[in-house]
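User: quick one
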Amino acid sequence: MSNRIDGMGLDSSELVEMARRCRINIVRMTHEAGAGHPGGSLSAIDLLVALYGTELSIDQNDPGWDDRDRFIMSKGHASPAVYSILHEVGYLSEVDLMSFRTMGSVCQGHVDMKWTDGVDFSAGSLGMGLSFGLGCSLAATMDSSERNVWVMVGDGELQEGQVWESVMAADFHSAGNLKLIVDRNGIQNDDFVDVQMEVGDVPSKFASFGWEVKEIDGHSFDDILEAINWATGIHHSPCAIIANTVKGKGVSYMENNPAFHGKAPDEDELRIALEELS
Amino acid sequence: MSAPSSGGASRDGYGAGLLRIADDPRVVIIEADLGKSTKSCHFRSEYPNRSFSMGIAEQNMMLVAAGMASSGKVPFASTFAIFTERAFEQVRNGIARSGLTVHICGSHGGIHTGTDGSSAQSIEDLAIYRTIPGMAVMHPCDDLSAEELTVQLLHYERASYMRTARNKTPRVYDADTVTALRIGRGSVIREGDDVCIIACGVMVNEAMNAAEELAVNGVQASVVDMHTIKPLDGELIDAMAATCGCLVTAEDHSVIGGLGGAVAEHLSRTEAVPLEMVGVDDQFGQSGEPLELMQSLGLTSDDITRSAMMAIGRKSG
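Assistant: Done. Structure below.
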């Protein structure tokens, strides 16, 4: 008998509203901290909202439930996105969010499983999360569990060699419960990805390693929900959702602007952002 | 202590230890195409469903192990000692920092590995893993002690690194004496009060030979098998320093940061006594037979004997 929980059971309008609240918290917490990575959090947030809102089998009263689905945020600098979602789930308080990056805070600069209930992986060093997810996936298979393992990586992160070690290994081990989302926002720390080192035809690359691949608009809930449904129906191999996104999505001056990869909004910028998101 | 004259390599002990803990269904092994060398292959033959090949991809292997540990498994990941170093940051950030219990075994450690040459001769592994917060570092001296310590790792809930050696060395322990070993506690395998030789790995046998040579000249040496370099048995070091008044460390590893470094750090914060360090003196090895290399790099019982006499000569009064 399945003991799965289908996410938070939200409908489309609730997803839109939750994404709006999360975006507000992303800009608020990075402003409060005077640091952090709003751009890659805003590009990823619609995907996280859809995943937590409709699919992830987690217990809102027990973040440590052994048989929960795993969500591994490999691009750990997008921690504000994760914290804003975990606030919606109920694992983090408003006070927790506003303590982001301060001494003793459960909201560490990069997501850290030792510090935060509901965080399944300690990230911060790019390229490691998919390997970790493969380990979780193999363990779930050993346990004959239905739990899925979702991993999110950035497109700049695909430059890390270890990603491709794990892509090859996941295919070899037929990790059908491993679901990857690539946040293809086109910007990395220093500049646009195609300037730093273009990662090329990402769907074809994954397909050539034996993965099932689907390319979507990462800000269309219709696309995202369809892709999640597609991914959960795949059991014979790992699959990748290549989500085309806009860095800084939802805040005009951050959109597609490399400057806001790792820069917090100042007072005026916060005001503008909140006006746009309200 | 009686010392049987023959035995296996410590890597054989690792393989035997894995088989002894295989009844625990949480135990999994992860390999990077060197299972026949590290000896996890025996587990793989018996328990293929709990054995995972990651190909020649050590970075991935370390994080796969971490993911499994986070899901309730007890992973034992192995490759050559030198190739674990390639994934140092993965061990640091992905395993130890996350508080995950992954047991890493690096075989073929040290120059003792021989003719493969310097690319395979890890002489810095003990040092680098010592620097990772909370991580245990071990280097057993023979097959039986490697087996015993591997078995104990099943219930040792922190990340660990165990270096094993490629080549056979004489057994220091027998089936009875080995059961007294405990992770984190040094083992006194010879008692004397003129000098204490603290050794690990293949150098324990050299230390015992040196103690015999010293005894011929009327010098009584204690010998400690410091199979666990971290957490270091500081109490035992203090006791030996008090009894003998000087120490010699001996390791098939750089003198920088390994056993000698660890003992020196400890002494600097306690009762300082003369310390001499036998190890690789900030240089790379080359191809050669183990004995040739040990002679070339100053890792023989004669080198320990000379260092012991120097340490004794430095004692005040």
